[in-house]
Design goal:
seven-stranded mixed beta sheet; 229 residues
């Protein structure tokens, strides 16, 4: 399955929930081919990379916001424009001025620098310790995985710095008015709800000045999410 699989999305205005349905269908079709899980994990080809790093995060945002009074249509573009998708919205919340009728989405992914090693090791062996305990042997090129012991909030404290660094870089770009930044997290450990609350609090406390309409941060594994204005 090649980049032509993206043709049904690129530049096409779709009802938000129809967009999500088509994205999930593409995910399942990719997953069910012989090397599908590996391709989705490694993201070496455009279709898998765009699916995981742009289309699925947009779906998460759409599903968190579609409701009676707010109906969303999505136009995703795979080019190099200053945003990933245009959204048009209708319904009572738009009529009353709570939500703009036209807006943009920009997706950014936040992960530990060893995340690619984690995915490679999982793809090869099916098991690995947390990302901080990974390193590649310079001689053999083998990936070594060692357990790391952390205190209660150390993982979320460390990950908050990665999130803030990414948001700060995004503030340096001139985005269109009413742009939402979608922050898709690949977390550095297994998080309980308390860990996510601590992460959210740390990000909120040190949030740089920005012009985004909102920042929507989520973890696709747990489904946890937070909003920042």
């Amino acid at each position: 399955m090649d980049g032509s699989s993206l043709a049904g999305f690129d530049g096409q205005t779709l009802d938000g929930l129809q967009f999500c349905s088509r994205v999930y269908d593409l995910f399942e079709r990719l997953r069910q081919v012989e090397d599908g899980p590996s391709r989705l994990r490694m993201r070496k080809i455009e279709v898998e990379k765009k699916l995981i790093e742009e289309l699925l995060p947009i779906c998460h945002y759409v599903q968190a916001n579609c409701r009676p009074g707010r109906y969303i249509a999505v136009k995703w573009m795979k080019g190099n424009q200053q945003f990933d998708a245009e959204i048009s919205q209708r319904g009572a919340l738009i009529d009353l001025g709570f939500v703009p009728s036209n807006a943009h989405l920009e997706v950014t992914c936040v992960m530990h620098q060893n995340d690619y090693l984690m995915r490679e090791l999982l793809d090869r062996d099916g098991v690995a310790f947390a990302v901080e305990g990974l390193k590649r042997d310079k001689q053999t090129r083998a990936i070594e995985s060692q357990p790391i012991v952390k205190g209660n909030s150390e993982n979320s404290d460390a990950f908050s710095q990665l999130v803030l660094e990414r948001i700060t870089r995004k503030t340096e770009i001139n985005y269109p008015e009413n742009t939402t930044l979608v922050v898709a997290c690949s977390l550095n450990s297994v998080y309980l709800e308390d860990d996510w609350v601590n992460l959210t609090d740390r990000v909120q406390a040190h949030m740089p000045k920005h012009a985004f309409r909102e920042i929507y941060m989520y973890d696709g594994t747990s489904g946890l999410f937070s909003r920042f204005r």
